[in-house]
Specification:
38% of the residues lie in helices and 22% in strands. By secondary structure, it is α/β, with parallel strands linked by helices. The protein has a single domain, classed as Rossmann fold (3-Layer(aba) Sandwich). It has an eight-stranded mixed beta sheet with strand order 1-2-4-3-5-6-7-8, sandwiched between helices. Helix 3 packs across helix 4. This is Peptidase S9 prolyl oligopeptidase catalytic domain-containing protein. Keywords: Hydrolase.
Length: 250
Amino acid sequence: MIEVEHKWIKEIPVLHVYDATHATEKLPTVFFYHGFQSQKELYLPYAYLLAQRGMRVILPDAGMHGERYADESETEQAIYFWDTVRENIDELPILRDALDAEGLIDTSRLAVGGFSMGAITSYGMLAQYDWLKVGVCLAGSSYYGHFAKTLAEGVMKQGVEFPFDVDARIRELAPYDLSAAPTKLKNRPLMIWHGKADDVVPFKYSEKLYEVLVEEDMSDNVAFMVDEKAKHKISIEGMLAGVGFLEEKL
């Protein structure tokens, strides 16, 4: 039986999904992150499929989302998008250490994944933490600097003023920018999925990253899956491919 447990790890609300027959075992674990203006509950289908295959899954809510939503406006969520991404990244060791203290995870078999903002988060985590073994990034961008500037320009065109120096804030993203130092991937297994017709996170970011990894001779463990027609929505085929990739590589 697949169990779904709601719990708080420190100040972070999560859904903990696992096969009850292995409830107290140290299992390979996937931290899976939701997209912008979404929440953890909407990604339970991924968690269920992964738990069926023997993995423990943690679905956190990002700041300003789900149970951490505090009546922020859509504009506020957009302005602080990258702060939310960075907070996700910085909180991952908290989640890992708490679960490790409970004896629930195999720390040599940890993976991250996500869709859209969750995929962007996952790229940053792979850049920061070499103890992660596998990544699955669905419709995301590892090009933090370029994409941050593009998003900021779009918000400003709507007449919104940022309450901070945008250029300075973008420079602060450098340590999380996998595209700036692709060798940080260290040949770890990575699945990239993206729809060519994506009108939210441009497909070009995934295409460029894959090209760079090929040029750097780092593509042996990279699966690049392109959906010729998909917009900013993961297909069933993409979801199942991501689940299969994690099952194989983790």
